[in-house]
Write a structure and sequence with these properties.
Hypothetical protein af1432, mainly alpha, HD/PDEase_dom, 11 helices, 210 residues, Hydrolases of HD superfamily
């Protein structure tokens, strides 16, 4: 038993595209998403530290880098489908957890299993690091949708994804980094020159006022 299957799975994540079923001008793989989320989480952690918080950096990086690794087992399911009902979400989580447990038992060397049980478990929780992961994940999704809106993608789904991502970020406004994103970074995003800027600006104002 070695780590071959784990390392091979990293290649699989390169070929697993996000937001399946939607027309996109630019594809984003799960592997690329994981890297971007780690970079964003790093920025968010810096902001929190500057505001007096203590960050478990190892825990934050482990959560960010590994948070979607288990998608190699079930693929990237569209968010509206994944969260359609509580029962469906629970079933998918159960299947993913079972496949992950079997993978760790059968493919990860015994002396590393405890580490990978931690790394491949659900990273979004009520800890500070779990909240930072949740915000970082949605910031990257927001930017992925913005990239399509900016290019004039006719799919209305990307406006919906943008709005839902922003709503999630807003739920974490007890965090300095979430407030910083909304107050400092989001205005810069909206100042970009693109065809649907007025429409997106109106959507953002409406979302922020809800």
């Amino acid at each position: 038993m070695g780590m071959h299957q784990y390392l091979q799975g990293l290649n699989n994540l390169e070929t697993l595209n996000r937001a399946p079923g939607l027309f996109k001008y630019q594809e984003h793989s799960v592997a690329a998403h994981s890297f971007k989320v780690a970079e964003i989480a790093q920025l968010l952690g810096d902001i929190e530290e500057e505001n007096g918080q203590t960050i478990d950096w190892q825990g934050l990086y482990e959560r960010a880098l590994n948070h979607d690794y288990t998608e190699r087992f079930i693929g990237d399911i569209k968010t509206p489908v994944k969260y359609a009902t509580h029962e469906l979400r629970t079933m998918l989580a159960s299947v993913e957890s079972s496949l992950t447990a079997n993978f760790i038992k059968n493919e990860i060397p015994t002396f590393l299993q405890e580490r990978y049980q931690r790394r491949l478990s659900e990273g979004k929780d009520e800890t500070l690091e779990g909240k930072l992961l949740a915000v970082a994940d949605k910031i990257d999704l927001l930017y992925e949708s913005f990239g399509e809106i900016e290019k004039g993608n006719p799919e209305n789904a990307f406006l919906e994804i943008f709005a839902e991502s922003l709503k999630t970020i807003m739920r974490y406004q007890e965090l300095a980094c979430a407030r910083y994103f909304i107050q400092e970074i989001l205005p810069d995003l909206l100042s970009e020159d693109f065809a649907d800027r007025g429409k997106l600006t109106q959507l953002v104002r409406q979302t922020l006022s809800e």
